[in-house]
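PROTEIN DESIGN WORKSHEET
SECTION A - STRUCTURE
LENGTH: 483
C-ALPHA CELLS:
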C-alpha cells in the first residue's frame, strides 16, 4: 500500500487506497459501511448508520463559519465489481490491485471503483482535516447506487439541515452537472424446457467489445455483447435447427457487456453449416464495428460429441426472440439539448439459473412517459414469450433548477481558479440527486468530479492530476463564504 498514498493529494489517495482494500461491490457493502462508522467514531463525529447500511457523518462548522448555511457532500460507497475474463480475483472477498500508469490510477484486471470511491475519499479527507475551512458538513454516503439507487430511496435525512449539496459522482472535470435522466431496472424471467439430443456441443463467445457505462458511454455506439449473441443465433438458425444449451453475459445491468457466451447444440449433419455461419457472422461484425469495437471476435472454445440436454425448439425460439427482437441502446435523442441521449435501454445481464433464462435491463430517460413506454415494451415482449418480470430501482429524473445560488457560486469560483468558464450540462447517466431532492425540499445541487475513463469496465482509469485539481476546487467552494 504506501505507493498510492504518496500521490497528490496525499490525504485523498490515502483514503482511496484504504477503500480499495475493502470489497465493496453493490450488495456487498457491510464491511465498507462499518469502515465509515469506525472512521466517524475514531474522530468523535456524529454519525447515523441505518438498516440499509447508508451512512451519514456530520462535522460542525470550523471557526468563523458557524453562521454559514450547512453544505451536504454526497456520494455512494458501492462500485460495479467487474473483472476481465480469466481474472481469478474474488471481488466479494479481496481488495483491488492498484497500479499507476502515467497520470492514471487503475486496478489490475478489474474495475477501479473510482465511481464512486473517489467521492468517499474526498469526503473522508475533508472530515479528517483540521485545516479545511468549511460550514457545517453533512456527508451522505449511500449504498447500492449502481443497482437501482436503493440506498438513496430508503435513506432518512431528517437529521440534515443543509439544502445545498455537492454530489461527487461526476466523471468529467470542468463540467457542472445540473440534471440527469431517471431510470429503472427490469428483471425478466423465462422458463426454459429442454430435451436430450445426440450431436455436438459448441462453446461459442462474442468477445473483445469495449463495453462501458450504459449511461455515460451509450452514445458511443458500442455493441452490446448480449444483444450480439441474440443476433448471432438468429443468423445461424437461418441455416439449421441449432439450439441453445446455456448462456451468460454481463455482470451489471448498467454496464454495456463486453463479452457474452453460449453453448450451442448442432446435429452432426449441421456442424459444417454452423461453423460456416459463425465465421461469416464474425466477418460481418468486424466490418460493422471496425470503429466502435475493433477488437470484436466470435470464439469457438470447444466442440464435443455426446448426448446433451438442449433447449427445445420452442424454448430456443423464445430466447432468440427476446435477444434478437428486444430494443437495445439509444431509443431517442433530446430535442432540447443537442447531443444528449434522452431515452435508452441496456441488456446488462444474461444468465441461466435452475431452468430459467434471466435478463436484466437498465432503462433510462429524462422524459418520464418515454421511460414508462420502454418499460412497457420490455414487459410486453417478455409476456409474449411466457415470461414474467419485476421492476425495481425506479428513480426520478433530476430536473434542472433555473435559479441556483450554488451553481452561480461554483461558476464564479471556477473562473477565478482556472481562468475559464465550466460547462453546465445534463447527462443521461443516473444520479441520486433527484431522489434526495424529494427528501430535502428546496435542495440546490450540483454534481462534480475528476476525470475518469471507461467506468464500469476493467479498463477504468482515474486521472491523478485531475483528482488534485478537483480537490482544490472543492476546498475553495467550501471555504468561500456566502454574501
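SECTION B - SEQUENCE
RESIDUE ASSIGNMENT:
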Amino acid at each position: 500500500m504506501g505507493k498510492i498514498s504518496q500521490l497528490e493529494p496525499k490525504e485523498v489517495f490515502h483514503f482511496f487506497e484504504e477503500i480499495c482494500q475493502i470489497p465493496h461491490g453493490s450488495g456487498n457493502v457491510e464491511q465498507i459501511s462499518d469502515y465509515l462508522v469506525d472512521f466517524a467514531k475514531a474522530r468523535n463525529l456524529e454519525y447515523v448508520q441505518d438498516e440499509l447500511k447508508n451512512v451519514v457523518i456530520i462535522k460542525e462548522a470550523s471557526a468563523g463559519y458557524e453562521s454559514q448555511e450547512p453544505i451536504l457532500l454526497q456520494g455512494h460507497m458501492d462500485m460495479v465489481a467487474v473483472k476481465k475474463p480469466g481474472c481469478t480475483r474474488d471481488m466479494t472477498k479481496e481488495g483491488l490491485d492498484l497500479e499507476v500508469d502515467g497520470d492514471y490510477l487503475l486496478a489490475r484486471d478489474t474495475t477501479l471503483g473510482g465511481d464512486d470511491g473517489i467521492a468517499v475519499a474526498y469526503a473522508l479527507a475533508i472530515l479528517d482535516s483540521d485545516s479545511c475551512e468549511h460550514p457545517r458538513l453533512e456527508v451522505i454516503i449511500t449504498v447500492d447506487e449502481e443497482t437501482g439507487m436503493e440506498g438513496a430511496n430508503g435513506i432518512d435525512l431528517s437529521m440534515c439541515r443543509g439544502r445545498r449539496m455537492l454530489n461527487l459522482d461526476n466523471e468529467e472535470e470542468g463540467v457542472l452537472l445540473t440534471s440527469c435522466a431517471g431510470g429503472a431496472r427490469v428483471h425478466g424471467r423465462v422458463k426454459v424446457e429442454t430435451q436430450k439430443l445426440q450431436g455436438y456441443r459448441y462453446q461459442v463467445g462474442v468477445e473483445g467489445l469495449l463495453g462501458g457505462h450504459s449511461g455515460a458511454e451509450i452514445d458511443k455506439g458500442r455493441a452490446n455483447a448480449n444483444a450480439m449473441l441474440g443476433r448471432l443465433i438468429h443468423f445461424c438458425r437461418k441455416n439449421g435447427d441449432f439450439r441453445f444449451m446455456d448462456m451468460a453475459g454481463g455482470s451489471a445491468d448498467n454496464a454495456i457487456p463486453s463479452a457474452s457466451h453460449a453453448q450451442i447444440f448442432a446435429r452432426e449433419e449441421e456442424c459444417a453449416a454452423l461453423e460456416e455461419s459463425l465465421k461469416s457472422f464474425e466477418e460481418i461484425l468486424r466490418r460493422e464495428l471496425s470503429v466502435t469495437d475493433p477488437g470484436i471476435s466470435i470464439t469457438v472454445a470447444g466442440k464435443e460429441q455426446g448426448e446433451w440436454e438442449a433447449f427445445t425448439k420452442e424454448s430456443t425460439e423464445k430466447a432468440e426472440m427476446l435477444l434478437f427482437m428486444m430494443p437495445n441502446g439509444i431509443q431517442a435523442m433530446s430535442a432540447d439539448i443537442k447531443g444528449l441521449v434522452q431515452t435508452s435501454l441496456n441488456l446488462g445481464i444474461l444468465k441461466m439459473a435452475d431452468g430459467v433464462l434471466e435478463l436484466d435491463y437498465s432503462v433510462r430517460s429524462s422524459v418520464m412517459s418515454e421511460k414508462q413506454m420502454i418499460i412497457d415494451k420490455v414487459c410486453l415482449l417478455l409476456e409474449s414469450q411466457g415470461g414474467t418480470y419485476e421492476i425495481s430501482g425506479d428513480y426520478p429524473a433530476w430536473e434542472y433548477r433555473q435559479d441556483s445560488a450554488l451553481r452561480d457560486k461554483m461558476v464564479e469560483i471556477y473562473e477565478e481558479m482556472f481562468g475559464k468558464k465550466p460547462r453546465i450540462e445534463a447527462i443521461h447517466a443516473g444520479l441520486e440527486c433527484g431522489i434526495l431532492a424529494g427528501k430535502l425540499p428546496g435542495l440546490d445541487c450540483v454534481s462534480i468530479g475528476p476525470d475518469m475513463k471507461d467506468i464500469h469496465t476493467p479498463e477504468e482509469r482515474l486521472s491523478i492530476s485531475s483528482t488534485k485539481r478537483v480537490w482544490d476546487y472543492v476546498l475553495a467552494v467550501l471555504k468561500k463564504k456566502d454574501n
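SECTION C - NOTES
The longest strand covers residues 297-311.
The chain has a mean pLDDT of 95.
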